Amino acid sequence: MHKIILSLKNTRYPIYIGNEIFSKFPSLCKKHGIKPHLAVITDKIVSELYLDELLSILKRGGFSPEVIIVNPGETSKSLSVLSKIITQLIQMKLRRDETIVAFGGGVIGDLAGFASAIYLRGVNLIQFPTTLLAMVDSSIGGKVGIDHKLGKNLIGAFHHPVFVFSDISFFKNLAEA
To answer: Can you tell me whether residue 59 is helix, strand or coil?
Structure first.
């Protein structure tokens, strides 16, 4: 596993990259002080492929994850979906010092990242991208947001993650372009 430190003007955080490093995720969460109760936000496609394994390794690592699953695709980057996510975060009693894990592609990174930026005026975020574009672009730099009916990414913020976790073994399940 490789570690790259992203240094920006006002923050810095690590990006972990490797092949078949999925099982190391809980130990990195502990290393970064992530509390046991956390929310995993993902979409239906990623959940069918990887959610059981993620939940299993998190629970074995002493974490108590709760899950929010949204429909895949750009239409989920909406105020209505965001409102449902915020409601679910309130219902699961996610506290200010706890964490949201954005587990998916760019849409999930944007949506979960924006939810983490505004819920309780900001909670911790871990970007766990599962697509190439999300690994090399959308999970890096703290750009998070949703769409408006008048345009893409018109509602958003900059909210940097605690860390980014990129396991390139996820590429094996990507559709060919």
So the answer is: helix
